[in-house]
Amino acid sequence: MSLPVLYSLRNCPYAIRARLAIYASGQKVYLRDLVLSNKPAEMLAVSPKGTVPVLVTLDNAVIDESVSIMQWAFSQTDPGDYRHNSAPNALAEMLFLIERYDNEFKGYLEKYRCAKRYHETSLINDRQKCEPYLAELEMRLSQHQYLMSDKPSLADLALMPFVRQFARVERQWYLQSPYPKLRQWLNCYLQSKMFSKVMSQHSMWLDLKEDVVFGRSV
Length: 218
Known about the structure:
This protein has 218 residues and is an alpha+beta fold. Helix content is 55%, strand content 9%. The chain is built from 10 helices and 5 strands, in the order E-H-E-H-E-E-H-H-H-H-H-H-H-H-E. The chain has a 5-stranded mixed β-sheet with strand order 4-3-1-2-5. Helix 4 (90-117) packs antiparallel against helix 5 (123-143), helix 4 (90-117) runs parallel beside helix 6 (154-167) and helix 5 (123-143) crosses helix 8 (180-190). The two termini are 18 Å apart.
């Protein structure tokens, strides 16, 4: 069996979102788990920037941006209509939302995580800079079950790993925060079969050089 190859890092949010899309779309890939301190020469040969995820398709195209991998997966098959194909401009709106959170929220989130890790006095201020983005998601989720509508979308899968990171910084504060719809939405994903499969632990590819088939049949 010949399949595309995905170089991945288990807990990297960018790699998680790529695996979520591959799983949700029903695609299958050879999964090559790695650690950033020991990057496979095979990956660096096709993507010298050395970050994950990296997808090598069957026609040897290299896709090394997480959102582009998500779009590739759903362009192959989209049984759950994660791109909301019947809604005009829906995909463009999703990609705009994802890009804004990647470019803005992610920076504030990293500062917040660092403040917690290194016991910095800026912790509360850094958290407060994240909150307008959480409030926006809360507002969206008060209008429908998921971020774009009453059915899951590419945007939900793309943003969820970063909301998960936020929720783990100050767990007690998060559990009492004024974002109940967001907590419910996140918990729904964290408790799902999909997330369990996506987060399964595998041997490092460099240890055995054995490819793991990842994905599901639809």
